[in-house]
Amino acid sequence: MSEEIVNRVINSALKTIDLDDFYAPGERITFDMASLLFQGLILREKDFREFVAEHDWSQYQDKNVAVFCSADAIIPSWAVMVLVTKLQPVANKVIFGALEELEHKLFSDGLLSIDLSTYQDSKVVIKGCGKHPVPAYAFAELTRLLTPYVASLMYGEPCSTVPVYKRRK
Question: Which candidate, 32, 102, 124, 155, has a CA 20 to 30 Å from the CA of 162?
Fold first, then answer.
């Protein structure tokens, strides 16, 4: 008398979202404008424009670039704009800010591609482990996006979840 083993996880109505699916490809790097400052204090337009004209922008091909300035200096907005015009054609993504902000932007862009209506009244599990490092920001943003739609939201693996949210009836 042997009973058939039934995989209840596969047969359940749970929908799983893996944030690894929204991990943007490409190396993450920084471009520190501090090296372009005269005496570490000011940005001289003539020197800056010479650098821009002579710099090998191809080294940023297919990379995700966070432009920032580590020095305590006032960086004119036009200078950032000039750098973006050079980086944009070769890089995957360019932002002004720290690497953490770059990672947030990359995940935000990916999460905006979700058709949230497909999760209407569903029980959803957001996977907790994956191949790539996923910032807490991505979990928070996905939760914010899903809660108006889902019946319930859980964290973990379908066989072992932590309840996060359940819509009141």
Answer: 102
